[in-house]
Amino acid sequence: MGIACSILIFLWVIDERNVDSFHANGKFLFQVYERNFYDGKINAGYTTQGLLANELKRVIPEVQFSSGYEHASAPGTQTTFEAAGKVIKMDGAFAGEDFFSMFSFPLLQGSPQTALTKYETFAISKKMAEVFFGNASSAIGKIVRYENKENLLITAVFDNLPANSSIQFDFLRSWVAYVKQNEWVHNWGNSSPNTFIQLQKNADPEKVQARIKDFIYRYQQKDNSFVVELGLQPYTDRYLHSTFNNGRVDGGRIEYVRLFTFIAVFILLIACINFMNMATARSVARAKEVGVRKVVGALRSVLIGQFIGEAILLTFFSTAIAIGLVSICLPAFNTLTGKQISVPASQPVFWFSLVALITITGFVAGSYPAIFLSSLNPVKVLKSSLKFSWGALFFRKALVVFQFALSIVLIVSMIVTYRQMQYVQAKNLGYDRENLIYVPIEGDLVKNYAVFKEEAGKIPGVVSISKMRNSPTVIEHHTGSISWEGKDPNLSVSFADAVVGYDFTKTLKLKIKSGRDFSNEYGNDSASFLLNETAVQKIGYDDPIGSIITWGNRKGTIVGVLQDFHFNSLHQSIDPLIVRLDENWNWGTVLIRLRGEKTRETLTGLKTLWKELNPKFPFTYSFSDEQYAQLYKSEQIVTKLSTYFAFLAIFISCLGLFGLALFSASQRTKEIGVRKVLGASVINIASLLTTNFLKPVVVAIVIAIPVSKYFMQRWLESFAYKIEMQWWLFACAGISAVFIALVTVSYQAIKAALTNPVKNLRTE
């Protein structure tokens, strides 16, 4: 079980470390990231300027290829295509013309140099080609209707992306189209897409990074209140190292990879300790064998080799069974982790790794029993029964302490991660995410939104409807172009910004602290703003209602203050937020509040209305609580895995404790017999033995609590909003460990206490 568990974890770790490793130019590929210095803070992220990729290639000689990259649809939505009589939604992105020359996404049809050169050129996956046209070759040259707005020409078909690619897409549009559709990219103060570059083979990344540090100030004047710097990160590092701290890459999924690597090693070590304890417990039965072998001339080195060989042989058979267990468990494991892992039986490195695992595990597990048994004095073991020194007993108990300390650390980790996820799910976000759905604004809904809102409002299960540029779950847009009367000219503040329709606060059930909501009763609300509490605090107004504030070139009046609500994950603190009204905004999300009792009937009614007003697009929607849960997908997986591994570690540790109980009982048969003859009851003897067994567990608790507190405190620091690790968490883990240990040893203790004393004393 220990080996099977460790193999499963190592397969997951290898899969994580292999993400993006297949690119032939991997060591020359880099992602550009941006550091922002403002308001006494340093923030960093992967969003960059829309024209940056092309300009880096044009200006910096060391840059061989470059490409921007931006999703073609809003988060949580897909793009609609029509071709060959079919209407289907797919995921995709915009990318530069060098994209296929940089990344190892092989083209089945078309040329990497011409696939994405013009506005109308378009590359699709093999899967998408088969859906529409049957095969890849038949797709080339075909016309596909994009979002029922324009026709695109298929110029390339790429093979389906491997599962270990960190970016996934079914189609790519040209960067020429992205620039033409987004006029804001010509302002170097705006950022959104990712930028990838490939350096010349003889280029020095450190020197290139130094050259691009202040690159954007070639195109705009430097403002010391808001300083922007560019940096480079190896592309193959991006998946595991995607978290920034103080403007530098610091952590990410690599923390989970390291965590589970340690867990795999610890579980295997716990299993090895079990073998040591059980082999030592059986040493009484093998002591005379060792004595006889020594008397007839066996060398100690030969005996050590024999016992280690036995351990390696046992490990070999255990590994064979473990491979079978892994094969059985992999489908469920893949479902849990969202992976496509398989046993790499065709790879020689896998079998070499197994040989190394068998050898090392067998050697570690067999070393102590081999050294101990080979050291026995043949005269003593042949003349009398085997007795163990204080040092030997102490070492075995120390092993049990180590086992249970690791297990208790895992129990605490399990409890903390579970409670943090419960906290995240139950946290009052400031808006009601229950019975709230998101529908993408697409196709004819752009011009028919007013009609859709009016008619949908007549459906009995619909409470209210509004619209929003993004979704309440993730507001990604930020602006530094906010000014107000009395603002310090040296102060630059980044505001999250949202564009919404009427009934926004009603649909989300937001609370208005002061002022009012947007209302069509006021003809000038298009020149009005809502702020959240954090924004008001940042500005410094005591009573902001009626004050004038400027957003870029748009001047307006603050008409309301919203109570702070969370519009990103709880990893981040709440940013200042500014909201403006635009009922005619032509993309984003329709927000629909439903009554909970008739959700299915309401969705059927909305689908019917959708077909009438937007027939070229299939009706799709997502629930707000589901999108919110996606923000913590990695943490949810870690929580589940931690739970399973903690239970497994405890189970294996209990086997070790059972082995120690078995050993102890076998060593104290005469003592138990004498105590019973002198009148000790079964309860007295069972209590004596049980107390002795529980001492290592108590010591393990004392050691494990500070260790687990340290590591879990570090994990919780990644959340801006988190639980407090109260004393009862550790008490619960300790009591659980004691209870489990008590159940484990009680059977053996009672069995020893019930043994006939006459039989034991006569045998002794």
Task: Report what the structure shows.
This protein is an alpha+beta fold and 764 residues long. Among the domains are: 159 residues, no CATH class; 220 residues, no CATH class. The protein is 48% helix and 19% strand. It contains 23 helices and 27 strands. Strands 1, 2, 3, 4, 5, 6, 7, 8, 9, 10, 11, 12 and 13 form a 13-stranded mixed beta sheet that branches. Strand 23 and strand 24 form a beta hairpin. The longest helix is centred in the middle third of the chain and has 38 residues. The chain starts with a helix and ends with a helix. The model has no long low-confidence stretch (mean pLDDT 86).
Taking the sheet with the most strands, its summary is:
13 strands, mixed
Number of β-strand runs: 27
Look at the helices and sheets and give the structural class. alpha+beta
* Rg for CA atoms: 33 Å
Report the span from N to C terminus: 37 Å
Strand content: 15-25%
Shape: elongated
What's the mean pLDDT score?
A: 86
**Proportion of helical residues:** 40-55%
Alpha plus pi helix count:
23
* Spans of at least 5 consecutive residues with low confidence: none
Provide the fold topology.
Blueprint: H1 2-17, E1 29-38, E2 41-45, H2 52-59, E3 63-71, E4 79-83, E5 86-90, E6 92-95, H3 99-102, E7 107-109, E8 121-125, H4 126-133, H5 136-139, E9 143-146, E10 150-158, E11 171-174, H6 175-181, E12 194-199, H7 205-212, E13 226-234, E14 244-245, E15 248-249, H8 254-281, H9 283-295, H10 300-337, H11 348-374, H12 378-383, H13 390-426, E16 436-441, H14 445-456, E17 462-468, E18 478-479, E19 482-484, E20 495-500, H15 504-508, E21 512-515, E22 528-532, H16 533-539, E23 548-551, E24 554-562, E25 577-581, E26 588-594, H17 599-613, E27 622-623, H18 624-630, H19 633-667, H20 669-677, H21 682-716, H22 727-753, H23 757-763
Parallel strand pairs: 6-11, 8-10, 20-25, 22-24
Antiparallel strand pairs: 1-2, 1-12, 1-13, 3-6, 3-12, 4-5, 4-9, 7-10, 8-11, 9-10, 14-15, 16-26, 16-27, 17-26, 18-20, 19-23, 21-24, 22-25, 23-24
Helix pairs in contact: 1-8, 1-10, 8-11, 8-13, 8-19, 10-11, 13-19, 13-21, 13-22, 14-17, 19-22, 20-23, 21-22
